[in-house]
Design brief:
By secondary structure, the chain is mainly α. The protein has 2 domains: about 50-405, no CATH class; about 410-510. The chain contains 24 helices and 5 strands. The chain has helices spanning about 40-45, 50-65, 75-85, 90-100, 105-115, 120-145, 150-160, 160-170, 175-195, 195-215, 215-240, 245-270, 285-295, 300-320, 325-345, 360-365, 370-375, 380-405, 410-420, 435-440, 445, 455-465, 480-485, 490-495, and strands spanning about 425-430, 450-455, 470-475, 495-505, 505-510. The chain has a 5-stranded mixed beta sheet with strand order 2-1-3-5-4, sandwiched between helices. A hairpin with a 2-residue loop joins strand 4 and strand 5 (about 505-510). Helix 14 (about 300-320) packs across helix 15. The chain is globular.
């Protein structure tokens, strides 16, 4: 006989208010990985509204991340990923030691992906997949903050997040950073609550994987360990052995990242050797991070950012009255990395995407405002309305995202360049490292041109004086101000060239 829905999965009475629960008296039979069976999974899918909504969000999120995955051309950083990933495992490691400013893990994974082809879709497939898998992780983090409603709202925010989708469609490590740092937060929160050695070990393991993905995560991990020490302080004063599990987690992480520690120090001194010439520098980084987390630079983004920020403040207020320790963790995790980043921006380049690891806590705090909203609108179906509203306010942003280029169109530019050049012409890129995205789409061997890259006005003048009767085409991007802060390259171009074409921030000039 088939059991009635309300009889299946009952374990205990819930401490939650019934109006907050979409599942009524149903409780999932899956309490730990030991309970993961086909029957229990089927029971949860059939009977739990939360599981059904989460599956829906994950499917929609996956569609949004894989849709039009090859639409944008590779830009400079993605072309760098492609170039580095073509090397052997050892060559990739050597590049991370001497050249690339990121750890090798992502490039090693892309190296394997290149066996399936060299298209933009192949290069971006792993970020899209990990960006999708982060959605259920956000749900679990939100649930750990308070309850399943907070979890679902957090997952919904990530599902249609412009910021999350953008970096899930980029052949860089940021989506992987988000995934591993989210798992790090999740296992830390579980470890704090249950104090199981398995959770502490997995916290240490995912911390290490996050560091192998991006060095900047070390700042977040430092904040987490500081919070752990504060949380355990009273117990540590009575018995130092209370730090055993935390120490195990730290040792697991340290052992796995040991090969990177020397590189981290070396990379920092290289990056801070001279003042930054580009990036988001100073206190404005806070504003820029909130805006980009909330939707980028579309017209509605400022309004959405303001609403999200107010909801975050409401959420952290609610969390303060419900769980002071989680409130402390949230405040430390959001504020300290921002303050440290502002200080570091005086000596090294800074960008909000480096802070993508803040997103799980930022969205969880926004979702934590749910109980306050419920007091104003005490309706059991409020959760559905909130999800619909989240989708509605993000649709205009995503419509613009999928209908316009969000990166430089090197693919289209390469085709135009071929139509203008003749055999033997000079093709000069300023700054010179822009040969990477151009050469993904353009071959000077096929086009029978002479291609080179330069950085200064002096180099441009030398080429111009030796070009003879050949035409000299100069390709310029906005990076010229960062690569040549002295400005002599722009001065030379102003006096010696005229514009032929402008395409999504790429300029084709011809020397007169």
């Amino acid at each position: 006989m088939v059991k009635k829905r309300e009889d299946r999965g009952k374990v205990k009475k819930s401490a939650e208010k019934p109006e907050y629960k979409l599942d009524g008296d149903y409780f999932s039979p899956i309490k730990s990985y030991h309970d993961i069976t086909i029957e229990n999974i089927r029971s949860s899918i059939v009977n739990s509204r939360y599981v059904q909504i989460l599956l829906f969000l994950t499917i929609i999120g996956g569609f949004l991340r894989f849709y039009n995955l090859g639409y944008n051309s590779l830009w400079l950083d993605e072309a760098t990923t492609y170039g580095v990933s073509q090397g052997s495992f050892f060559e990739i490691w050597q590049t991370s030691v001497t050249g690339e400013f990121h750890p090798p893990l992502f490039h090693w994974i892309v190296h394997f992906m290149l066996y399936f082809g060299h298209s933009e879709i192949v290069l971006r497939a792993v970020p899209a997949l990990l960006g999708t898998l982060a959605i259920p992780v956000f749900y679990l983090i939100g649930r750990e903050f308070r309850d399943k409603n907070v979890g679902i709202i957090s997952a919904a925010l990530l599902t249609v997040s412009y910021f999350g989708i953008h970096y899930s469609q980029e052949a860089r490590a940021y989506s992987m950073v988000l995934f591993f740092s989210s798992l790090t937060i999740l296992f830390y929160l579980w470890a704090l609550r249950m104090d199981k050695i398995s959770h502490w070990v997995l916290f240490g393991l995912f911390s290490a994987l996050a560091v192998w993905t991006h060095y900047y995560v070390l700042i977040a991990l430092g904040v987490i360990y500081l919070h752990a020490i504060i949380s355990f302080w009273d117990r540590l004063k009575k018995n130092i052995r209370e730090a055993k599990n935390l120490l195990i987690a730290f040792c697991v992480m340290t052992v796995f990242i040991l090969p990177l520690l020397v590189i981290v120090v070396d990379r920092y001194f290289i990056l801070s050797a001279s003042s930054p010439t580009y990036g988001v520098l100073g206190p404005i980084l806070i504003q820029e991070t909130i805006i980009r987390f909330s939707g980028g630079y579309a017209q509605l983004s400022w309004l959405i950012a303001a609403v999200y920020f107010m909801l975050m403040l409401a959420g952290i207020t609610c969390l303060y009255y419900e769980n002071r320790n989680k409130c402390l963790f949230s405040g430390m995790y959001l504020i300290l990395p921002l303050v440290i980043s502002i200080l570091l921006s005086s000596t090294m380049t800074m960008n909000p995407r480096y802070l993508i690891f803040l997103l799980p806590v930022y969205f969880a705090l926004i979702a934590m405002s749910y109980p306050l909203v419920f007091r104003l609108i005490p309706h059991r179906k409020l959760l559905y309305a909130i999800i619909i509203l989240i989708f509605a306010i993000n649709v205009p942003l995503l419509t613009g995202y999928y209908s316009t280029f969000t990166k430089e169109d090197w693919r289209g530019f390469a085709g135009f360049l071929e139509s203008k050049t003749q055999d033997g012409d000079l093709v000069v890129l300023v700054p010179g490292y822009m040969v990477q995205p151009l050469d993904y789409y353009y071959s000077n061997t096929t086009d029978k041109t002479i291609e080179t890259g330069v950085y200064t006005g002096k180099e441009l003048d030398a080429l111009y004086n030796t070009k003879g009767a050949r035409s000299m085409f100069v390709i310029v991007t906005g990076d010229i101000t960062a690569a040549n802060p002295e400005g002599d390259a722009i001065s030379w171009l102003t006096g010696h060239t005229k514009m032929l074409q402008q395409n999504t921030g790429i300029y084709l000039l011809v020397a007169g």
